[in-house]
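Something for you to look into today, if you have time. Could you write out one complete protein record for me, on any chain you like? The space below this message is yours for that.
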Amino acid sequence: MLDNMTQRKTVSWDDLTFPENYYETSDALMRYEVLQDAMKNGDNGEANQIRLQMWEDRYGKYDGTKPEVDHYLKLWLDFRFAYEKRKSIFGFGNAKKSLQKDLNAMGFERTNDKGQMGEDILFAELRHMVRFYLSLCMSDKTYRSSFLGIMSMKDENVIDKITREVYEVACATPEFYGLTKEYEVFTNAAIDAFSTDFPEMSGTLHRYINGEV
């Protein structure tokens, strides 16, 4: 089941061109350098201006050092919290307000007036974030732990856990809070990211979405 994740990590950098190489690496500084190279080489159009703005939204203003925070990953955690609070009398309202606020932090308002180009760039950035998160889940000892943190789950059990989380965070949460349309790009990006890295589990994810699991 790890074949696709392994393949992703071993893609030859020399075989990639911009913007594919920009979305293939998870290293924030490398992404910035790749984007700057493209802009210096004459590709300084609106699309790359949007990418630069999203880079700053996600990692903060460039200062030459490696960013310490990935704000998009924080937004994923906001969704996890909202899912856990979906049936809470006191937590529901605050969680929904947080999700509505996150629309701007995720770049939705930044791309609203940019048409299909803006939506495509937003989709690509969100998809990149989800793929990065999935790779962290596969390697993180805490995420993989079971039985009071003493034992580590098998790969297939970790992937089952990831499948449920992608459904709960990216599909069920927007629907439960009445934000399906607003977060449609995020939902589609998460489904695509998951299906890319775990194609053998794509059917299971869609069964969750269709209420068959």
